[in-house]
Amino acid sequence: MSGSIAQGTSQTHGNTHILHFLVRLPRPMEDVWPAVATPEGLGAWCTAVDVLQPRLDGAVTLRDLGSGRVTAWDVDRVAEYTVEGGGRIRFHLERGGDAESVLRFTHEFQGEAASESDWRNRFERLIGILESSRPLPGKKPPEPSEPLPGQFT
């Protein structure tokens, strides 16, 4: 399977805008988690991360989006960042089969700061990284449990 981005939806309530995306990803959620929950992972496809304390109420600074707090954190499932000027950004991962996952994304913000096309472009970069053979940023390659043939121990 290759990744896909469902049509985003947008709601407006007064001055509050809410964008939703459903993104199908070609890797299991354990492999995708570093892309939404580590500075290296987010920096590779979304925006540079200056600060990220990976825990509930930890500090976060997403360079193009703002500074604030981690407002939800469920390891391997949910990372939510609420930043001044950038609003609430939520990544919710779900299983999409044995080798795939689904990202339910929500961005709630005031004013006109974000657009559907900006996020779609970001998700296209994420899918490109996940579809490539490159290791995911922020994810350590598995260590072999036994020596490879011809490898000295």
Structural class by secondary-structure content: alpha+beta
Termini separation comes to 38 Å
User: Mind describing the biggest β-sheet?
Assistant: 9 strands, antiparallel
Shape, please?
globular
Average pLDDT: 86
Q: What kind of oligomer do you see?
A: single chain
| Number of H/I helices | 3
- Unreliably modeled segments: none
What is the count of β-strands?
9
Order of helices and strands: EEEHHEEEEEEH
The fraction of residues in strands falls at 35-45%
Rg of Cα set: 17 Å
What percent of the residues sit in helical stretches (DSSP H or I)? 10-25%
Structure description:
The chain has about 150 residues and is an alpha+beta fold. Helices cover about 20% and strands about 40% of the residues. The chain is built from three helices and nine strands; from the N terminus they run βββααββββββα. Strands 1, 2, 3, 4, 5, 6, 7, 8 and 9 form a nine-stranded antiparallel sheet that branches. A hairpin with a 6-residue loop joins strand 4 (about 50) and strand 5 (about 60). The N and C termini lie far apart (about 40 Å).
Would you spell out the secondary-structure blueprint of this structure?
Blueprint: E1 4-5, E2 9-13, E3 16-25, H1 29-37, H2 39-45, E4 49-52, E5 59-62, E6 66-74, E7 78-83, E8 87-95, E9 101-110, H3 116-131
Antiparallel strand pairs: 1-3, 2-3, 3-9, 4-5, 5-6, 6-7, 7-8, 8-9
Helix pairs in contact: 1-2
Quick tags:
9 strands; single chain; 153 residues; alpha+beta; nine-stranded antiparallel sheet
